[in-house]
Write a structure and sequence with these properties.
The protein is mainly α. It contains 16 helices and 2 strands. The protein has a single domain (32-388), classed as Glycosyltransferase, CATH 1.50.10. Helices cover 52% and strands 1% of the residues. The protein starts with a helix and ends in a 13-residue tail after the last helix.
């Protein structure tokens, strides 16, 4: 009887609680974050249940954008893990649950007859979050796209086409949002506006300022938009161009090399206690600040200077630090504004509850199988730990063109 009770309890547990390795910590946090969004949206109750707090109304009421923000951003980070599919492991069974929720959520998000039908064209903001949702489909074609019925696929495509009516696109990283929607079109349709892709790529080549960093339009901004948007979307768009005869596809190797340099910089931002510099816009996106480094890990393209063990250890330290803050979630499990807990005054006027789910973009390495060397290699000190412990073998940092 006692043995049967233990088995029943384990079957109810998403992951084995006594196996709190790094991967278990990451997955438990990801699904905790995802549950309110995906469960509510799968039931057609996201608009009813999700709070839409914003610290400022300087840019007006943002509630009409919040639901696509939450869904698109969450899925962009969660997609690689879902793409591993279903298997007989505890983790595989857990993925089965979230894959099913995702299919229902997609349908409700794009069906005009759904109570949760989302805004893909009213205002400029929908272009941003349609782009993140497009990234999600690109990152998980076998689990997020192929199982959908033709009716749902057509509604997704029509929803993305609506963003083409958004013409007042800021002359900065926003060009990549338009390009990312078209990258989705390359992968899943025959209706592609290559001009939007070409313009975004060419302008970002002009805006490169050196040492792995792009300006955000005419001027460089000291913030994490190179990680939130620029490097990851450049890579994802150019990866989709590789299957075409397009003249710009050789840029992939160029942007990858630059991203690797930026990955080195991001890794050095992680302090010995798992904190990182809080500077510039949108710092309330939390773990999303490390998307560029996480994407390199997912693609198995980490720079030679960084071992998988040190990157995993550093990112896990950041995640555990963020988790430790009181007020990260409200009483119903929704993310709250802030970096370390609830800090509403840290939000820019364009940020609401939905915006915060961009933090999921730091979770991309979960798309590597649980037996991948990224997850099973020995833990190692990351660079700042080595430096501030007096390690004499740490090599100097080198500038890159």
């Amino acid at each position: 009887m006692k043995k049967r009770l233990v088995l029943v309890l384990l079957s109810m547990t998403p992951l084995l609680n006594f196996a709190q390795n790094d991967r278990a910590i990451w997955i438990n946090e990801l699904v905790k974050m995802a549950d309110p969004v995906l469960v509510s949206l799968s039931e057609g109750k996201l608009k009813e249940k999700m709070p839409t707090e914003q610290a400022s109304f300087e840019y007006g009421d943002r509630s009409s954008f919040a639901h696509l923000e939450a869904f698109g951003r969450l899925m962009a980070g969660m997609a690689p893990w879902l793409e591993l599919g279903v298997d007989d492991t505890n983790e595989g069974k857990l993925r089965k649950k979230y894959i099913k929720l995702t299919h229902k959520a997609i349908r409700n998000a794009v069906d005009p007859n759904s109570s949760d039908y989302m805004n893909f064209s009213n205002g400029n903001q929908p272009l941003v979050d349609a782009a993140f949702l497009a990234q999600a489909f690109i990152r998980a074609p076998n689990q997020m796209w192929k199982p959908l019925n033709d009716d749902t696929k057509n509604m997704v495509i029509e929803a993305f086409k609506k963003t083409r009516t958004i013409s007042n696109i800021p002359y900065n990283n926003w060009l990549l949002f338009a390009a990312s929607v078209e990258a989705f079109m390359i992968k899943f349709t025959d209706d592609v506006d290559y001009v939007r892709i070409e313009y975004a790529l060419q302008k970002h080549m002009e805006w490169y300022v050196g040492d792995g960093l792009y300006a955000d339009g005419k001027y460089y901004h000291w913030d994490y938009y190179n990680s939130f948007v620029i490097h990851p979307m450049l890579i994802d768009v150019l990866r989709e161009l590789q299957g075409t005869p397009h003249k710009l596809k050789p840029l992939y190797e160029v942007v990858l090399k630059r991203a690797q340099r930026y990955g080195e910089i991001l890794e050095r931002q992680i302090s010995p206690i798992g904190t990182f510099p809080i500077v510039g816009r949108s710092t309330v996106y939390r773990f999303g600040a490390f998307q560029a480094l996480s994407q390199l890990a997912l693609l198995e393209k980490l720079p030679a200077k960084l071992s998988e063990g040190q990157v995993r250890s550093g990112l896990t330290a950041v995640l555990k630090k963020l988790q430790s803050a009181k007020g990260l979630y409200d009483e119903n499990g929704w993310l709250q504004i802030g970096v370390y807990g609830y800090q509403p005054d840290m939000a820019e006027p364009y940020i609401s509850t939905g915006s915060l789910y961009l933090t999921s973009l730091g979770f991309l390495p979960l798309g590597l199988p649980e037996n991948h060397s990224f997850w099973i290699s020995s833990a190692e000190d990351w660079t700042s730990v080595k430096i501030w412990s007096g390690d004499s073998l740490v090599k100097r940092d080198k500038y890159s063109n």
